[in-house]
Amino acid sequence: MKEKLISISLVLTSALCFSSCATIFTSSHQDVVFAGESDATIYDGSRKLGKLDADGMATIKLRKGLNSKHLYIKKDGYERTYVSVVPTFNFVSLLNILFWPGFIVDAATGKICKYDDEVIEFEMQKKDQ
Q1: How many Cα atoms occupy the beta-carbon half-sphere of 17 within 13 Å?
Q2: Rounded distance, CA 129 to CA 114, Å?
Q3: H/E segment holding residue 24
Q4: Of 12-21, 64-73, 85-94, highest mean pLDDT
């Protein structure tokens, strides 16, 4: 019984040591709403993220990170449109002020940042025929 209690305590202690405030309180992904031309498709490089519905809206779950995301939007008959989603500092990470390894964990997982732009509106230009 005593060995089981010790092993449970070790597991809980190590879990606390390798987690941090942003890791505990925030997700590694964030919902971002895109608004624009209906049926336009959003890409991150060659990876398709989603398609706007008939209302011209789509909610895309973007993975948080330290770098900006450079996305593009495509639709037949329209020029390709580029948008950037820029991360900002996630102030929940400041709760790590007394436990500095938490900053390292937050930075490694990308949770030290968040996207301020939760709604991104874009306008597409028709191709010259």
Answers
A1: 6
A2: 40
A3: helix 21-25
A4: 64-73
Predicted confidence (pLDDT) at residue 20 exceeds the cutoff of 70 = no
Smallest CA-to-CA distance from 114 within 106, 105, 104, 126 is with 106
Return the closest-CA partner of residue 67 out of 85, 83, 43.
85
Q: What is the C-alpha to C-alpha distance for residues 95 and 73, in angstroms, rounded to an integer?
A: 37
Instruction: Estimate to the nearest angstrom the gap between the alpha carbon of 86 and the chain centroid.
Output: 10
CB contact set of 40 (below 8 Å; sequence gap of 6+)? 51, 52, 56, 73, 74, 75, 78, 81, 124
Q: Which amino acid makes up residue 5?
A: L
Strand duo 119-121 + 29-35: pairing: parallel
For tokens 């390894």, name the residue: 101
